[in-house]
Amino acid sequence: MTTHRFRVGQKVQLSRGYPFRMAADGFYEVVRQLPDNAGEFYYRIKSSREAHERVAKESELEKA
Question: Which residue of 2, 12, 34, 39 has the fewest C-beta atoms within 10 A of its own C-beta?
């Protein structure tokens, strides 16, 4: 069974190659691990520079 690569509370950043035009720069904190969808895990992430949380695929994230 595959497991999540990132844990709750871990600092991550959005992948450099992914076009998040409206996303805040800098680090995000993993707020929640979400189930997989089509074989890829999802996460709720939060930046201290934004009021809202985002949902990102595991492939869109890198370790901070």
Answer: 39
